[in-house]
Amino acid sequence: MMEEKKLICHKCQKELELKKTNFSYLGHIFFTEVPRCPECGLVFISEDLVKGRISEVEMQMEDK
Amino acid sequence: MTEQNEFVKECLQNERAFCTAECPFNLDVRDFVGKIQQGRFNVAYRTYQNAVGFSGIVSALCPEPCKQVCPMKDAGGSISMKLLEIAAMSYARNTAPDQYNMPPKGNRIAIIGGGISGLACALRLTTKKYDVTIYEKSYLLGGHLFDLLNPEIFLDDIKQQFINENYTLLLNTEISSLDDLSYDAIYIATGKGGNDFGLSHNEEGAFATTKSGVFIGGSIAGVDTMTAIAHGLNVSGAIERFLKVGKMNHPEEATGTKLLYEGIRITKADAVEPSNGKTFTKEESVDEANRCLKCACDACVHHSPLMNYFKKFPKRIADEVEVTIRPSTLDGNGTVCTRLISTCNHCGLCKEVCPKDIDTGEFLRESMQAMHKKGAMPWAFHEFYMRDMEFSNNEAALVKLPKGHKKSSYMFFPGCQLGASDPRYVTESYKFLTQHFPDTALMLNCCGAPADWAGDVENHAKVIGKIKDDWINLGKPIAIFACPMCKQMLQRFLPEIEGQFLYNIIDEKGINLKKNTKKEIASVFDPCASRYESALQSSIRNLATKAGFNLEPLPMEGKMAECCSYGGHVAIAYPPYVSHNVQKRIEQNNNPYITYCSNCRDIFTAAKKPTWHILDIIFDLDNENRVLPTISERRDRRLKLKQQLLNEFWKESSIMEKPAIEVLISQELKEKLNSKYILESDIYTIVGNCEQSGNKLFNPNSETFTGYMQIGKMTYWVEYRARQERGFELVNAYCHRMKIEEGE
Fold it and tell me: Is the pTM of this model over 0.90?
């Protein structure tokens, strides 16, 4: 099976690396590691992450 | 009580049942009957015995005042409480009194009079191990019960209830002066016409006399036998209070009830007759108990979709809202019921069914405003609808005097969603109106409901202000509404605008209706905003009947109209609630529905319920099997409608702007975007932005680009690829509410 190639930042032509990133929602700040461009910091968030942990935390914040 | 829950002070939720309020013993009949319904005779007996003290005597002598107030009186017969009480006694596993192992209390209490009131007092006090002495002037206990009942019955009951307790009994001992007695407290229960020792009642508290430590009650106070027993039971509380705190101010027992018969749903059921002519079998007892309505005011929880779903009464809602708006948590950010506040459809049914007119919906509307003002309401619940309102009031808006007129007598106010559902609803209606009233202007925009429902007072005021200015510029015409919600909104916030309904005018002026020759059976689904519009409701029925439909009523119609679930824009805040309610609305019967709100129509159609808008029938629009527009198509249709109206009625040609970038979106993805509330126009914007800025990621595995953009507060992601010929093709899209901040 072919190895999955990493996402590339179109502008910087660099492979994305896992880096700590901050998120905010309803006045709360969270952080997690997501792929980012080491040069310009462009972020990638997968649909799986959105469907999973992100929507879970969103719901928790709304009902906290 | 705080300002927040002031509105529930009239709530009757905890009021006693009518029967309990009449019962001298305040027997909790709902509790007692509930236990019989479950066949739990033992616990039912305990409930009864604890309330009355002498179950044998009371069940034999009670004249059942409860029967006089029972709402079942004229619906098959009052509940036979006496027979249920006898059943509880007969079928209880164990009727022996409980034995309490408690140390003796030091206080000594004298009871003057060995009648049933004095004995009832003695029973309560000896059970708590007080040292009780009863003085009886005659040679035996029982007092006036000898005139009423076979002595075997009451003497047995007295013996049985005192089986575990001790007291000193001094028979043939008449007390002539209280000065001879040295006790910590005294209860005078000397019976009808008995000696009151020159003491009078002290208003300070229940059973109190003017002499400290001396209490009076029972038949001497002129009450009947049952009340005399109740006095004896209750005076023990006043005596204990005196012994503990030295005060005679024991509160009077609460009596009566504020419960109203109109709050009770009566189900007729014939009284159960005992098969042996005297007493119930176990099964008969359960059957009789099942007839009991267990009267309580729960009209709101029964009818209001919100209160029914959450099983919460207004008082509970008020408390939860209070801690949500004014949290006592350290960070001040508790949001216990933001979702509940956001779940109200604002249909008004709660107020309609409440016998005290408590308006929980209005309370939730104000709560929404308070939460919005604080910035504590999740913005995501309403952002989509607020953007939609913005669109309706800008790109898709059209406010115009009719061609050749400098002012207008009427203005057609179709509302924003009618044309979004089907532009012909608006064009055909406007054509009809201008034929009858040529000086009818057009005001195509949104009534401001989305801002009102979002609690966004500031934006709402702007919308209302703009409508008012436009209306003045049009010459203050009479508004003609197609949507009951728009009329409700404008009548509330701009009462100076006189309003009529399109359907009343069509009904009055007449129109050639294409006859439904099949004489199809249908039911009119009244939108919630039509609740108090009886003339409108009859016009709709007239028109449908004239069109050849056989109408069958729905259980919930007219003043009892329910919201289709669109009201309040709840779909994003609480999707499961919406599905639950839509299902309940469409299952009222199997007939196709005819409605006159395009949201009701579209929501039911989406749930596969055959539904016509009355305009489908009036203008023969053949919409029976149409495919519902997506949220993006709803925007396109509004733009096309505007263009069409300008062309047709003002002969002004306009060209719809094409998106600057071409993005091919498959049908499957269009459906996904629709379900996620993602607009196709936003997809164009984001792809364009990624291409222009170069802020995009390349996936070498799928050879696609991915990028994101925040529009409003929502962050949208697109995955796309360039097409060989030209433009792009959307591969995927999704969105989240969390904002991406800077990384390290």
Answer: no
